[in-house]
């Protein structure tokens, strides 16, 4: 920046020429919309590339009719009440405490009770002290330790699960997969592996998005009864061998070969069914080895569900396998916009990172209710698609809470590319008309571009 006569001049970094200060400011303000318009790729603001949310989801008509037929024929007693209880149970379910954590807790309790006893009995020698403390420790552990109840999915529980979770589970998986479909339109999967397939909701959701391009579906569930119910749903609610979706294969165990890969690997609401951390980590490694393009994990939007997904994230991104069959490195696709530690776990440990999707419930009576599914998800990619999307003009951020639209600004809570949480009031004046309109058109779970602030007068000053 320098003075010439009575006018102040500055070198514009975009045009690389000396301009009057007012002209330089006009140059900067006119260039910013060009960068923002480039992000839009010709789409209207309400359909900008970061919008991945879906409108209220309905089950495919054939799946809806098949489920109603199966439930009507089964005549399950108190079905609505039992379905409600099962939904509440699954939502409130927690991980079992690990043996190492239980041992640490027992040691702390033993020290605490020993100090209490010594304060009471300062001089006397108590020969029964050790037995008494052990009894108190065991009693306290029983009282305060969460007792995880394993579920055995037989035919009866499978029918109740169908009434309780078919529509909500389908909506959550469809929303997660839709992000891949929207952001990577060139990805057309030919094969799918569904671990913990249950009623086959992942198969239906994948078929909704990619149709007949999928030539092979491998559904793995340890429950033979759940596999039978899933086959009935594919056959329109009957046992006739004429499935709506072809080439679906049901197994009770994962494929053995470590070199066989699938374009799309999904585990929805199944990692939380595994009792221990070691079991979950072994399954995560196995699923990642079988992933050719995308690994999709979905869990309940609870604190435990989020932490299970963060275990998987850290396992895949940070831990090295002893034998690598695929040398391509993993990269975060969604919902994280970075590979740094999750700021929700470090700064807001009580509040999980979760998202919502509206859906119409399975019509057990004449009417369908519009409900909300709250879920957490994780998508990890082997492809280099994300690297091509990086821009020097903006970073992608994730909206991690409800967007509040005010008359002249939009309140957004963001998880940023630098691994930080940010509360931002987006205005047209400060952030540009395009970003402001994108923010007004976005919702919880969408991506929002954070355009880089440039202050050329600061970096290009000369005397």
From TrEMBL:
Statement: the UniProt record of this protein carries the keyword Transit peptide: yes
Main location: mitochondrion
Record's keyword annotation contains Transmembrane: no
GO CC terms of this entry: mitochondrial small ribosomal subunit
Subcellular location field: Mitochondrion matrix
UniProt-listed Pfam families: Rsm22
Keywords annotated in UniProt: 4Fe-4S, Iron, Iron-sulfur, Metal-binding, Mitochondrion, S-adenosyl-L-methionine, Transit peptide
GO MF term list: 4 iron, 4 sulfur cluster binding; metal ion binding; methyltransferase activity; structural constituent of ribosome
Family: Belongs to the methyltransferase superfamily. Rsm22 family.
Purpose of the protein: Mitochondrial ribosome (mitoribosome) assembly factor. Binds at the interface of the head and body domains of the mitochondrial small ribosomal subunit (mt-SSU), occluding the mRNA channel and preventing compaction of the head domain towards the body. Probable inactive methyltransferase: retains the characteristic folding and ability to bind S-adenosyl-L-methionine, but it probably lost its methyltransferase activity.
Quaternary structure, from the entry: Associates with the mitochondrial ribosome (mitoribosome).
Protein name as catalogued: Ribosome assembly protein METTL17, mitochondrial
């Amino acid at each position: 920046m320098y003075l010439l006569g009575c006018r102040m001049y500055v070198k514009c970094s975009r045009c690389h020429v000396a301009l009057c200060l007012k002209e330089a400011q006009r140059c900067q303000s006119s260039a910013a919309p060009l960068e923002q318009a480039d992000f839009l790729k010709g789409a209207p603001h309400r359909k900008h590339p970061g919008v991945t949310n879906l409108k209220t989801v309905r089950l495919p008509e054939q799946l809806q009719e098949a489920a109603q037929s199966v439930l009507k024929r089964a005549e399950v007693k108190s079905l609505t009440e039992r379905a409600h209880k099962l939904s509440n149970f699954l939502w409130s379910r927690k991980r079992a405490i690990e043996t190492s954590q239980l041992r640490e807790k027992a040691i702390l309790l033993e020290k605490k009770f020993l100090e209490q006893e010594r304060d009471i009995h300062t001089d006397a020698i108590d020969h029964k002290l050790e037995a008494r403390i052990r009894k108190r420790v065991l009693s306290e552990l029983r009282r305060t330790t969460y007792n995880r109840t394993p579920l055995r999915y037989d035919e009866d529980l499978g029918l109740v699960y169908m009434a309780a979770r078919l529509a909500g589970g389908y909506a959550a998986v469809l929303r997660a997969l839709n992000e891949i479909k929207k952001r990577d339109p060139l990805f057309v999967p030919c094969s799918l592996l569904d671990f913990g397939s249950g009623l086959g909701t992942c198969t239906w959701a994948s078929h909704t998005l990619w149709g007949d391009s999928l030539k092979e579906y491998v559904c793995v569930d340890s429950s033979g009864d759940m596999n039978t119910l899933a086959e009935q749903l594919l056959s329109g609610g009957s046992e006739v061998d004429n499935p709506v979706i072809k080439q679906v294969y049901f197994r009770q165990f994962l494929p053995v070969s470590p070199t066989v890969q699938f374009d799309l690997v999904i585990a929805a609401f199944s990692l939380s069914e595994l009792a221990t951390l070691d079991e979950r980590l072994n399954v995560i490694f196995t699923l990642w080895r079988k992933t050719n393009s995308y690994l999709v994990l979905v869990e309940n939007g609870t604190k435990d569900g989020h932490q299970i997904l963060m275990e998987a994230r850290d396992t895949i991104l940070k831990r090295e396998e002893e034998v690598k069959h695929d040398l391509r490195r993993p990269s975060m696709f969604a919902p994280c916009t970075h590979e740094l530690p999750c700021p929700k776990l470090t700064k807001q440990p009580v509040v999980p990172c979760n998202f919502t999707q509206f859906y119409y419930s399975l019509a057990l009576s004449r009417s369908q209710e519009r409900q909300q599914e709250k879920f957490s998800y994780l998508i990890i990619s082997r492809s280099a698609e994300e690297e091509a999307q990086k821009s020097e003009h903006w970073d992608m951020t994730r909206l991690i809470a409800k967007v509040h639209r005010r008359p002249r600004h939009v309140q957004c809570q963001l998880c940023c590319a630098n691994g930080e949480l940010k509360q931002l009031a987006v205005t047209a004046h400060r952030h540009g008309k395009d970003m402001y309109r994108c923010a007004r058109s976005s919702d919880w779970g969408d991506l929002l571009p954070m355009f880089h602030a440039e202050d050329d007068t600061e970096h290009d000053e000369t005397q």
